[in-house]
Each structure stands twice: as structure tokens, then as C-alpha cells.
Amino acid sequence: METTTPTTDPTPVHAYVLGDALYLNLTSACTLACTFCPKIRDGSFTVGGFDLRLSRAPGVEEVWAAALAAGLAGRSEVVFTGFGEPTRRLPVLLELARRLKAAGVARVRVDTDGLASLREGRDVVPELRAAGVDALSVSLNAPDPATYVRLCPNAFGERAFGAACDFIREAARAFPDVAASCVGVPGLSREACEALVHSLGARFRWRPYDRLGRLETTPAAGSPPRAG
Ligand code: SF4
């Protein structure tokens, strides 16, 4: 469980707009420590000019107030993302998803590491779907367990890779739109990643990795910013 120590940042960013989409930032905590992540490499939490570092995990009402202040009308989608894993705040995420759909938001997406079912000890895919989530974007980042733990160290070890694959497979059965992405770090086989993702039933996304070894975080059409 996350701690809720007093905040030191005067204006934490819980909701932010880029293009015609709204992004919700629930946590700075991750299950992975991805070697290519700007947060891990450089201590940078900045996306699109927004500093997404949170010193305290916000509650439902705080994020909901921020979302309403940013405005829901006319949004192409609302996305749970940021430099943290949204499903680590699963009850908050589910309640916000229900509110967003009740408010008429056309598309709610979750960007995730795909490890929620492993962490929670149960299949959470039906819960995400029942709450109204429309789409999932899962960071897989490797075509095999050994590469996964090398690029994305975590407390579960290689078991996490299989769990992420299982999550993608289950999600692809339950959701109309599931993408799985891999960051194009040097030496990673795009073909192997793509073949695996397709075998799991998901859409494949290859994400750029620039020459400085940082994720490209500038939003582009059809390619919303995300950390992991
Ligand atoms: S890439 Fe995503 S999952 Fe990995 S450490 Fe960064 S924010 Fe966390």
C-alpha cells in the first residue's frame, strides 16, 4: 500500500491536457524500474511541459476535481497515464473510470505495465472492463523473459513477463482495443516483439528511442505521451 505523506509540491498535476485528450495522473509509483525510462535514468518526470512528479497519491475527489476543471466536453479520450503505474491505484482508477463514462466521455484508456493481475492476485481485466474502460495500452518492451528483466527490473523477476503476456491475452479477449508496445532500445528485435504481440491478439506499437537514450515524450498525432 502506498504511503500518504504530506505533499511538498504546491501544485501537483493530477490532470493535464495535450491536444484534444485529457490525461489523469494517479501516482508516481511503479512496479518496474525500466532502464530506458527518463524517470529512472535522469530523475525526469516531465511530459509535454508538465512535471508529473507526485509526492502524495491523490484520492478520487482530488483527481475528479482536476478532471472537471480541465474539462471533459469534447475530449477525444481520457487516459490514465503518467510516470507511475495507474493500476497501483486500482480502486481510485475504477471509480474515476465509472464517473468518466457516466459523464459521457467517449473513450477511456489505461496505459499500464500489464502487471495488475499479478500484483493483485486475481484477474483484474473484467473489473477494468466493467468500470467502463474502453482501451488498454500495455507496455511489454521485450520478446522474452530474460530481456524483460534486463530492461525492466522488478521484484517479481521473469515471472512478470509471463504475467504481462497473460494480461494482454485476456485483455485482447475482453476489450475492443488493446495495444502492446515495445520501446526500440538498441539491439531489441522489433520483429520478435511484433510477432509476440500479434500472437497475444493485440495491436503492436513500436515506440521511438532517441539517440540520447531518452524516450521521446513530445506528443504526436495518434501517439499520446506516456512514460511506460
Ligand atoms: S517506463 Fe513506465 S513503467 Fe517503466 S519505470 Fe518509467 S514510468 Fe515506470
TrEMBL record:
PANTHER family: PYRUVATE FORMATE-LYASE 1-ACTIVATING ENZYME (PTHR30352:SF5), PYRUVATE FORMATE-LYASE-ACTIVATING ENZYME (PTHR30352). Transmembrane segments: none annotated. NCBIfam families: tatD_link_rSAM. This is Radical SAM protein. The keyword Iron-sulfur applies. It comes from Anaeromyxobacter paludicola. Its cofactor is [4Fe-4S] cluster. Residues 16-228 form the Radical SAM core domain. Keywords: 4Fe-4S, Iron, Iron-sulfur, Metal-binding, S-adenosyl-L-methionine.
